[in-house]
Amino acid sequence: MASTGFSVSRLPGFATIAMLAFLALYIPILTLVVFSFNSEVTMGNWGEFSLSWYQKAWANEDVKDATLRSLTIAVLAAVCSTTLATMAALGTTRRATFKGQTFIYVMINQPLMVPEIVTAVALMIVFGLIKTVTGIHGLGYLVLAHTAFCIPFAYLPIRARLEGMDLTLETAAADLYATPWLTFRRVTMPLLMPGIIAGAMLAFVVSLDDVVITEFVKSAGQDTLPTYMLGQLRRQLTPEINAISTGLLLLTVVMLTAFFLLTRKKD
Amino acid sequence: MSPAEENAVKTSARNGWLLSSPALVVLAIAAAGPLVIVVIYSFLKAGTHGNVVWTFSLDGWQSILWTKDIFTDSYVWADAHLSIFWRSVKLSLLTTAITFLVGFPTAWFIATRPPKARAFWLFLITIPFWTNLLIRTYAINEVIRKEGLLNLTLQKIGVITEPLNIIYTDIAIFTGMTYVYLPLMVLPLFAAIDRFDMRLLEAGYDLYGSRMQILRRIILPIVKPGIIAGSILVFVPSLGAYVTPRVLGGGKQMMLGNLIELQFGQGKNWPLGAALSLTLLVIVTAALLYYVKVANGEKRHG
Q1: What is the architecture, at CATH level 2, of domain B77-301?
Q2: Least CB–CB distance from B128: residue in A25, A35, A147
Q3: Cβ contact B23–A151 (<8 Å)
Q4: Could you give the dihedral angle defined by the CA atoms of residues A242, A248, A249 and A252, in that order, rounded to the nearest 10 degrees?
Q5: ipTM at complex level
């Protein structure tokens, strides 16, 4: 079709608004990134292009500590939630609907429906009680909380992948006397892998991004990178925050690009 | 059904439950279960140094709307709470409206691109969607703060001489929420428009419909489920927003999320905090149920 002339799907002004929306979405992010390279502290004063704020952030023990903790929690939460979500997805797809299935769906998606601040407060109370009773203040609470709210994010792509797979290959394997476990390991699992990896990556990003629940659940000295950044609000913000943000942003973009390449339909 | 078939169905259901149970246990411990404790705490007495005293009391619920006047011992409206409630609802509705007005043309634009370009534009929406909320809030803060990009630019080109005081106002929170939640509106709208059959537009134009008529009478009714989904996705987190009002409201302009936090911190009124959390939960659940009802209704009709 020629692109000139009357196009039914064109609505006047829509393209302009869309362009303005994209500008509005990216100008603030680009501003944040650009001024992370400013050697001066204030925005009105552009010194020269410099990596000094990155060096400062890199040398900051608190930042290093929080980064390491963020990554630890995100990896553990991603692995745990993806394992649980894979099992749940296998349990809730490709079989006759059974009693209580709606309940399972609601439970799995529940973290998406309850406002974060409410979950945060609830967990603070419950984990607070457990902390006083047991006297244990480890990272386990954060890992458990993150695992829980990452489950729906890991579940959705895995379930989508499973729903697109029919049972013929598994039936064939069973016909050839493969045990259920062998069938799972050699047939189901490899076919499901792109879904599992996509789910794990979403869970990782979601865990890495969490501010509110972590802020309420963490014990003293358990800052993650986002809660550390939120804590910096009390002081004057310096471009060091811009540098840390840019680093996190880069990580998100890399993960997302990988996610897109993995889930892209091959046709 | 033969007994063998019946058995197979039973086994399948049992396996379904068995496979789902580990996830359900974790969710019961660290997501759904703790909500029960919040209900209990909302009916207890506040401890003097925070936490609770284990005696039954309705104070938590009562103090959402009324506070005891310490001089006359009578109950008066809790103006501070009411104004925070009003601000939360007002700003959330405004955010939903503006993200729709901007998001609909944006989603339409993306959905009407050729496939290759569409993937590119969609990716541009997805990046902010998955970027840390705090980073995006700091990003908009870079633009609207006193020595921020907006003020510097306006001063440089001579539109203003004194910097505009946007930061730490309702407008700052509203701008910030519109900015951070826009992708949440665009994505479901895009999904709805993407399924829209463009031939309907040809039919509309053949019948001499004007652009406005076609937008109002054909497009909007058909993509309505997407509009509702997007509105819920923006309204719900806006109402419970915590990070954005904290950063851009500077602790002075509070929203519901900040009021809840205050009760567990300096406010030292955990039962009130619990009651406020449940109020928020009830409003959000009502909105979601409304969505489910409308979405199911649409399915039945079409």
Answers
A1: Orthogonal Bundle (1.10)
A2: A25
A3: yes
A4: -170
A5: 0.88
